[in-house]
Design brief:
Blueprint (H helix, E strand, L loop, with lengths): L3 E5 L4 H11 L5 E5 L11 H17 L4 E4 L2 H6 L1 H12 L4 E3 L2 H6 L1 H4 L4 E6 L1 H6 L1 H9 L4 E6 L3 H6 L6 H15 L7 E4 L8 H7 L5 E3 L2 H14 L1 H4 L8 E5 L3 H12 L6 E2 L3
Parallel strand pairs: 1-2, 1-3, 2-9, 3-4, 5-6, 5-7, 7-8, 9-10
Helix pairs in contact: 1-12, 2-4, 10-11
Bound molecules: D-glutamic acid.
Length: about 270
């Protein structure tokens, strides 16, 4: 028995956690942000896999029967290997889920034209995970990926809303939309990006919708737990949220409290 583990390279996973807690407040949650090593988006496949596996092992050691990789970069680069190669020997009775598949499943509801833009870290976009998943689930759809290497560092360094931040947001949205005039929706394919929502909205024509993953992932988790009572029955229900950061709590807590819209008092974790 234990809490649901939620992992991200830094603050971004809080945008997922917040929506999951809103929908499923009865469970206990343990959030882990690897802020000391964020961003992951420009790191190699091997590094992201190594760091993510460390985090998953850590959350398992804290008793989590289920871990959500609330990070697209980790989902793109590490999830499959962890599910297929590591879990069978490491913890065959535990589960690790990602955020790309549930988001790709919703592409049909998101777009009318079938032309979907995806903004993400260089790692997520280069992996083509969204293109592959959406092509499988929605044949005939066209996807357009735009790497946004500066967006995650902007969030991690607390520069949201500054003129410098807005410059990079506008530049990358323009680059994305230059790929096709038919794009009618943009998936925020990095969990940090909802924190930049206001700047993104201002840089995007009003007729183009902007889709955050939080509510989608929360819905999909609720559905998963209904279908998997063997996992659901092992989750403790105390309505608590605990936070861990690999950086220092005094740095993590103020920004995390802002994002969660509730007081956050984290503890330091050494992976
Ligand atoms: N929030 C993460 C994602 O969804 C990671 C971003 C990063 O660390 O570069 O991709």
């Amino acid at each position: 028995m234990g809490p649901i583990g939620v992992f991200d390279s830094g603050y971004g996973g809080l945008t997922i956690l917040k929506e999951i807690v809103r929908l499923l407040p009865q469970y206990d949650y343990l959030y882990l942000g690897d802020n000391a090593r964020a961003p992951y988006g420009t790191r190699s496949f091997d590094r992201v896999y190594e760091f993510t596996l460390q985090a998953v092992k850590y959350l398992f050691a804290q008793g989590c029967p289920l871990v959500i990789l609330a990070c697209n970069t980790a989902s793109a680069k590490a999830l499959r290997t962890i599910q297929q190669r590591d879990l069978p020997t490491l913890a065959p009775d535990r589960r690790v889920l990602g955020v790309i598949r549930p988001t790709a499943e919703k592409a049909g509801d998101i777009s009318r034209t079938g032309h979907v833009g995806i903004v993400g870290t260089p790692g997520t976009i280069a992996s083509q995970s969204y293109d592959i998943e959406i092509a499988k689930l929605h044949p005939g759809f066209s996807t357009y990926g735009q790497p946004c290497p500066m967006w995650c560092p902007i969030v991690e360094s607390g520069e949201i809303g500054t003129p410098g931040a807005d410059y990079f947001v506008r530049r990358d949205i323009e680059r994305l939309l230059a790929q096709s005039p038919e794009i009618d929706s943009i998936i925020l394919g990095c969990t940090h990006y909802p924190l930049l929502y206001q700047s993104i909205r201002e840089a995007t024509p009003a007729n183009i919708s902007i889709v955050s993953q939080g509510p989608i992932v929360a819905d999909s988790l609720r559905d998963y737990l209904r279908r998997h009572p063997e996992i659901d029955s092992r989750l403790t229900r105390g309505g608590s949220i605990r936070y861990l950061t690999t950086d220092t709590p005094d740095k993590f807590d103020p920004l995390a409290s802002l994002f969660m819209e509730r007081p956050v008092a984290s503890l330091h974790a050494e992976l």
